[in-house]
Amino acid sequence: MRRKFAGALLAATLACASASAQTRAPGWHQLDQAEQAILSPLAADWDSFDAERRRKWLDLAARYPSMTVEEQSRMRARMSYWGSLTPQERIEARERYKRLQAMPADQRETLRRQWEAYEGLSPEERSRLGAAQRPGSKAPGAAAAAPVRK
Amino acid sequence: MKSTVRTTFPSAATDEAAIGQRVHAALEASCTELPPDIVFRLRQSRERALAAATPRRRLAWLPRLAGLPGNLGGGWLRDGLAPTVGILMLALIAALASQQSQDERFNESLDIDSALLTDDLPIDAYLDRGFGAWLDSQGRS
Protein backbone atom coordinates (compact mmCIF):
# COMPACT_ATOMS: atom_id res chain seq x y z
CA MET A 1 0.00 0.00 0.00
CA ARG A 2 2.72 2.44 1.04
CA ARG A 3 4.89 1.59 -1.96
CA LYS A 4 1.92 1.99 -4.28
CA PHE A 5 1.15 5.37 -2.74
CA ALA A 6 4.75 6.57 -3.09
CA GLY A 7 4.97 5.24 -6.63
CA ALA A 8 1.76 6.98 -7.63
CA LEU A 9 2.94 10.31 -6.22
CA LEU A 10 6.32 10.01 -7.96
CA ALA A 11 4.68 9.09 -11.26
CA ALA A 12 2.32 12.05 -10.96
CA THR A 13 5.24 14.42 -10.32
CA LEU A 14 7.22 13.13 -13.29
CA ALA A 15 4.14 13.28 -15.51
CA CYS A 16 3.58 16.93 -14.55
CA ALA A 17 7.25 17.77 -15.25
CA SER A 18 7.11 16.02 -18.60
CA ALA A 19 3.87 17.73 -19.53
CA SER A 20 5.26 21.17 -18.73
CA ALA A 21 8.33 20.48 -20.91
CA GLN A 22 6.09 19.58 -23.83
CA THR A 23 4.04 22.77 -23.72
CA ARG A 24 4.15 25.39 -26.44
CA ALA A 25 4.64 23.22 -29.49
CA PRO A 26 1.90 24.60 -31.73
CA GLY A 27 1.20 23.32 -35.20
CA TRP A 28 1.57 25.68 -38.15
CA HIS A 29 -2.13 26.59 -38.17
CA GLN A 30 -2.01 27.43 -34.47
CA LEU A 31 0.53 30.21 -35.03
CA ASP A 32 -0.76 33.76 -35.21
CA GLN A 33 -0.51 35.74 -38.43
CA ALA A 34 2.62 37.64 -37.43
CA GLU A 35 4.45 34.42 -36.54
CA GLN A 36 3.36 32.76 -39.79
CA ALA A 37 4.56 35.76 -41.78
CA ILE A 38 8.02 35.72 -40.18
CA LEU A 39 8.38 31.94 -40.28
CA SER A 40 6.84 31.46 -43.74
CA PRO A 41 10.08 29.97 -45.21
CA LEU A 42 9.58 27.07 -42.76
CA ALA A 43 5.85 26.54 -43.41
CA ALA A 44 6.25 23.31 -45.35
CA ASP A 45 8.47 21.66 -42.72
CA TRP A 46 7.03 23.17 -39.55
CA ASP A 47 4.80 20.29 -38.52
CA SER A 48 7.71 17.85 -38.80
CA PHE A 49 9.79 19.85 -36.28
CA ASP A 50 9.98 18.57 -32.71
CA ALA A 51 8.72 20.68 -29.80
CA GLU A 52 12.11 22.15 -28.90
CA ARG A 53 12.82 23.18 -32.47
CA ARG A 54 9.44 24.87 -32.79
CA ARG A 55 10.00 26.67 -29.52
CA LYS A 56 13.38 27.90 -30.75
CA TRP A 57 11.99 29.23 -34.02
CA LEU A 58 9.15 30.95 -32.15
CA ASP A 59 11.69 32.61 -29.86
CA LEU A 60 13.70 33.70 -32.90
CA ALA A 61 10.52 35.07 -34.47
CA ALA A 62 9.91 37.05 -31.27
CA ARG A 63 13.32 38.72 -31.73
CA TYR A 64 12.63 39.51 -35.39
CA PRO A 65 10.88 42.89 -34.89
CA SER A 66 13.86 44.23 -32.91
CA MET A 67 16.35 43.35 -35.68
CA THR A 68 17.59 45.83 -38.27
CA VAL A 69 16.14 45.59 -41.77
CA GLU A 70 19.41 44.05 -42.99
CA GLU A 71 19.37 41.43 -40.24
CA GLN A 72 15.73 40.63 -40.95
CA SER A 73 16.57 40.15 -44.62
CA ARG A 74 19.49 37.84 -43.80
CA MET A 75 17.46 35.81 -41.36
CA ARG A 76 14.62 35.20 -43.79
CA ALA A 77 17.08 34.31 -46.55
CA ARG A 78 18.88 31.79 -44.33
CA MET A 79 16.00 30.18 -42.50
CA SER A 80 15.31 27.41 -45.00
CA TYR A 81 18.99 26.60 -45.38
CA TRP A 82 19.59 26.54 -41.61
CA GLY A 83 16.52 24.35 -41.21
CA SER A 84 17.78 21.92 -43.85
CA LEU A 85 21.10 21.30 -42.08
CA THR A 86 21.59 18.14 -40.04
CA PRO A 87 21.76 18.50 -36.27
CA GLN A 88 25.49 17.70 -36.43
CA GLU A 89 26.10 20.44 -38.99
CA ARG A 90 24.27 22.96 -36.85
CA ILE A 91 26.36 21.95 -33.83
CA GLU A 92 29.58 22.38 -35.84
CA ALA A 93 28.50 25.80 -37.11
CA ARG A 94 27.64 26.94 -33.57
CA GLU A 95 30.96 25.76 -32.19
CA ARG A 96 32.91 27.57 -34.91
CA TYR A 97 30.86 30.69 -34.43
CA LYS A 98 31.62 30.66 -30.70
CA ARG A 99 35.35 30.49 -31.44
CA LEU A 100 35.04 33.52 -33.72
CA GLN A 101 33.18 35.62 -31.20
CA ALA A 102 36.40 36.53 -29.41
CA MET A 103 37.92 37.87 -32.62
CA PRO A 104 38.36 41.68 -32.87
CA ALA A 105 36.11 43.50 -35.33
CA ASP A 106 38.95 44.30 -37.75
CA GLN A 107 39.88 40.61 -37.97
CA ARG A 108 36.28 39.71 -38.64
CA GLU A 109 36.26 42.21 -41.50
CA THR A 110 39.42 40.55 -42.86
CA LEU A 111 37.73 37.18 -42.56
CA ARG A 112 34.70 38.44 -44.49
CA ARG A 113 36.95 39.62 -47.35
CA GLN A 114 38.78 36.29 -47.29
CA TRP A 115 35.47 34.46 -47.57
CA GLU A 116 34.56 36.54 -50.63
CA ALA A 117 37.93 35.67 -52.19
CA TYR A 118 37.40 32.00 -51.37
CA GLU A 119 33.98 32.07 -53.04
CA GLY A 120 35.77 33.24 -56.18
CA LEU A 121 37.68 29.95 -56.42
CA SER A 122 36.52 27.33 -58.88
CA PRO A 123 34.24 24.57 -57.52
CA GLU A 124 37.00 22.01 -58.27
CA GLU A 125 39.55 23.94 -56.22
CA ARG A 126 37.14 24.30 -53.31
CA SER A 127 36.34 20.59 -53.41
CA ARG A 128 40.04 19.76 -53.37
CA LEU A 129 40.60 22.02 -50.37
CA GLY A 130 37.60 20.53 -48.59
CA ALA A 131 38.84 16.99 -49.14
CA ALA A 132 42.27 17.93 -47.78
CA GLN A 133 40.75 19.27 -44.55
CA ARG A 134 39.99 16.29 -42.36
CA PRO A 135 36.64 16.35 -40.52
CA GLY A 136 36.94 17.74 -37.03
CA SER A 137 40.32 19.34 -37.66
CA LYS A 138 40.97 23.06 -37.70
CA ALA A 139 37.96 25.36 -37.91
CA PRO A 140 37.86 28.20 -40.42
CA GLY A 141 37.83 30.76 -37.63
CA ALA A 142 40.95 29.40 -35.96
CA ALA A 143 42.86 29.55 -39.23
CA ALA A 144 41.55 32.98 -40.11
CA ALA A 145 42.97 34.57 -36.98
CA ALA A 146 46.49 33.39 -37.74
CA PRO A 147 47.59 35.85 -40.48
CA VAL A 148 46.74 38.93 -38.45
CA ARG A 149 47.88 37.69 -35.05
CA LYS A 150 50.53 39.97 -33.52
CA MET B 1 11.97 -0.74 55.91
CA LYS B 2 8.60 0.20 54.73
CA SER B 3 6.86 3.49 54.97
CA THR B 4 3.18 3.81 55.50
CA VAL B 5 1.25 5.42 52.69
CA ARG B 6 -1.79 7.24 53.75
CA THR B 7 -4.71 6.31 51.62
CA THR B 8 -7.34 8.27 53.38
CA PHE B 9 -8.36 11.52 51.85
CA PRO B 10 -9.34 14.67 53.66
CA SER B 11 -12.91 15.46 54.03
CA ALA B 12 -12.54 18.09 51.30
CA ALA B 13 -12.12 15.32 48.70
CA THR B 14 -13.17 17.62 45.90
CA ASP B 15 -9.87 19.47 46.17
CA GLU B 16 -8.19 17.86 43.15
CA ALA B 17 -4.86 19.55 43.69
CA ALA B 18 -4.54 18.13 47.15
CA ILE B 19 -5.46 14.68 45.91
CA GLY B 20 -2.90 14.90 43.14
CA GLN B 21 -0.17 15.86 45.57
CA ARG B 22 -0.97 12.95 47.80
CA VAL B 23 -1.02 10.45 44.91
CA HIS B 24 2.30 11.84 43.69
CA ALA B 25 3.82 11.47 47.14
CA ALA B 26 2.50 7.92 47.43
CA LEU B 27 3.96 6.89 44.07
CA GLU B 28 7.31 8.49 44.84
CA ALA B 29 7.51 6.67 48.13
CA SER B 30 6.57 3.28 46.72
CA CYS B 31 8.87 3.68 43.72
CA THR B 32 11.96 3.61 45.90
CA GLU B 33 10.84 0.43 47.56
CA LEU B 34 10.16 -1.78 44.53
CA PRO B 35 11.70 -5.28 44.66
CA PRO B 36 14.92 -5.67 42.59
CA ASP B 37 13.35 -8.13 40.09
CA ILE B 38 10.56 -5.64 39.29
CA VAL B 39 13.09 -2.83 38.90
CA PHE B 40 15.09 -5.04 36.52
CA ARG B 41 12.03 -5.92 34.41
CA LEU B 42 10.95 -2.28 34.26
CA ARG B 43 14.42 -1.28 33.04
CA GLN B 44 14.33 -4.00 30.36
CA SER B 45 10.90 -2.87 29.20
CA ARG B 46 12.05 0.72 29.04
CA GLU B 47 15.13 -0.19 26.98
CA ARG B 48 13.05 -2.24 24.56
CA ALA B 49 10.60 0.62 24.15
CA LEU B 50 13.41 3.10 23.45
CA ALA B 51 15.05 0.75 20.95
CA ALA B 52 11.77 0.36 19.08
CA ALA B 53 11.18 4.12 19.03
CA THR B 54 14.62 5.10 17.64
CA PRO B 55 13.99 4.53 13.90
CA ARG B 56 10.93 6.77 13.92
CA ARG B 57 12.88 9.54 15.61
CA ARG B 58 15.51 9.42 12.87
CA LEU B 59 12.83 10.15 10.27
CA ALA B 60 11.20 12.88 12.29
CA TRP B 61 13.10 15.63 10.39
CA LEU B 62 11.52 14.67 7.05
CA PRO B 63 8.00 16.01 7.62
CA ARG B 64 9.45 19.06 9.36
CA LEU B 65 11.66 19.69 6.33
CA ALA B 66 8.55 19.60 4.16
CA GLY B 67 6.86 22.12 6.44
CA LEU B 68 4.57 19.54 8.00
CA PRO B 69 4.12 19.00 11.73
CA GLY B 70 6.59 16.53 13.23
CA ASN B 71 3.81 14.34 14.59
CA LEU B 72 1.66 13.29 11.66
CA GLY B 73 -0.41 10.83 13.58
CA GLY B 74 -0.09 7.07 13.57
CA GLY B 75 -0.24 4.24 11.09
CA TRP B 76 0.99 3.90 7.53
CA LEU B 77 0.11 7.50 6.69
CA ARG B 78 2.83 8.85 8.98
CA ASP B 79 5.38 6.12 8.28
CA GLY B 80 4.77 6.20 4.54
CA LEU B 81 4.35 9.94 4.05
CA ALA B 82 7.63 11.07 5.62
CA PRO B 83 9.99 9.16 3.30
CA THR B 84 7.68 9.75 0.34
CA VAL B 85 7.74 13.49 0.90
CA GLY B 86 11.54 13.34 1.16
CA ILE B 87 11.84 11.37 -2.08
CA LEU B 88 9.45 13.72 -3.88
CA MET B 89 11.37 16.75 -2.66
CA LEU B 90 14.64 15.30 -3.91
CA ALA B 91 13.01 14.42 -7.24
CA LEU B 92 11.58 17.93 -7.50
CA ILE B 93 14.94 19.56 -6.74
CA ALA B 94 16.65 17.33 -9.32
CA ALA B 95 13.96 18.11 -11.90
CA LEU B 96 14.23 21.87 -11.29
CA ALA B 97 18.04 21.78 -11.54
CA SER B 98 17.82 19.78 -14.75
CA GLN B 99 15.22 22.16 -16.19
CA GLN B 100 17.36 25.18 -15.34
CA SER B 101 20.39 23.61 -16.98
CA GLN B 102 18.33 22.80 -20.10
CA ASP B 103 16.99 26.35 -20.22
CA GLU B 104 20.52 27.79 -20.02
CA ARG B 105 21.70 25.54 -22.86
CA PHE B 106 18.61 26.40 -24.88
CA ASN B 107 19.08 30.16 -24.43
CA GLU B 108 22.78 29.97 -25.31
CA SER B 109 21.95 27.97 -28.42
CA LEU B 110 19.19 30.45 -29.28
CA ASP B 111 21.59 33.41 -29.04
CA ILE B 112 24.09 31.69 -31.33
CA ASP B 113 21.43 30.65 -33.85
CA SER B 114 20.11 34.20 -33.94
CA ALA B 115 23.63 35.52 -34.53
CA LEU B 116 24.37 32.93 -37.23
CA LEU B 117 21.16 33.75 -39.06
CA THR B 118 21.93 37.47 -39.10
CA ASP B 119 25.74 37.50 -39.22
CA ASP B 120 27.59 39.33 -41.99
CA LEU B 121 29.35 36.05 -42.79
CA PRO B 122 27.12 33.42 -44.38
CA ILE B 123 26.44 30.13 -42.61
CA ASP B 124 28.61 28.28 -45.12
CA ALA B 125 31.67 30.16 -43.88
CA TYR B 126 31.29 28.27 -40.61
CA LEU B 127 30.66 24.94 -42.27
CA ASP B 128 32.98 24.83 -45.29
CA ARG B 129 36.06 22.77 -44.42
CA GLY B 130 37.78 23.92 -47.60
CA PHE B 131 37.66 27.50 -46.33
CA GLY B 132 39.78 26.57 -43.32
CA ALA B 133 42.33 24.81 -45.53
CA TRP B 134 42.42 27.75 -47.91
CA LEU B 135 43.01 30.20 -45.04
CA ASP B 136 45.87 28.03 -43.83
CA SER B 137 47.43 28.08 -47.29
CA GLN B 138 47.00 31.87 -47.47
CA GLY B 139 48.70 32.26 -44.09
CA ARG B 140 51.71 30.16 -45.18
CA SER B 141 52.20 31.97 -48.49
Largest interface by residue count?
A-B, 60 and 41 residues
* Cα separation of the termini of chain B: 117 Å
Question: What's the number of helices of chain A?
Answer: 8
Number of strands of chain A: 0
Which class of secondary structure composition applies to the elements of chain B?
mainly alpha
Q: Indicate the radius of gyration of chain A in whole angstroms.
A: 22 Å
Number of strands of chain B: 0
Q: State the helix count of chain B.
A: 5
What's the overall average pLDDT of chain A, rounded? 79
Low-confidence stretches of chain B: 1-5
β-strand amount of chain A: under 5%
For the termini of chain A, the CA-CA separation is 73 Å
Structural class of chain A: mainly alpha
Strand content bin of chain B:
under 5%
Oligomer state equals heterodimer
Overall geometric form of chain B: rod-shaped
Low-confidence stretches of chain A: 137-150
The biggest sheet of chain A, with number of strands, parallel, antiparallel or mixed sense and barrel status, is:
none
Helix content of chain A: 55-70%
Polypeptide structure, described:
The complex is a heterodimer of chains A (150) and B (141). Chain A has eight helices and no strands. The C terminus of chain A is likely disordered. With 150 residues, chain A is mainly alpha-helical. Chain A is globular and about 45 Å long. The longest helix of chain A is centred in the N-terminal third of the chain and has 20 residues. Chain A is 67% helix and 0% strand. Among the domains of chain A are: 56 residues, no CATH class; 47 residues, no CATH class. By secondary structure, chain B is an all-alpha fold. Chain B has a domain of 81 residues. The radius of gyration of chain B is 38 Å and the shape is rod-shaped. The interface between A and B is large, with 60 and 41 residues.
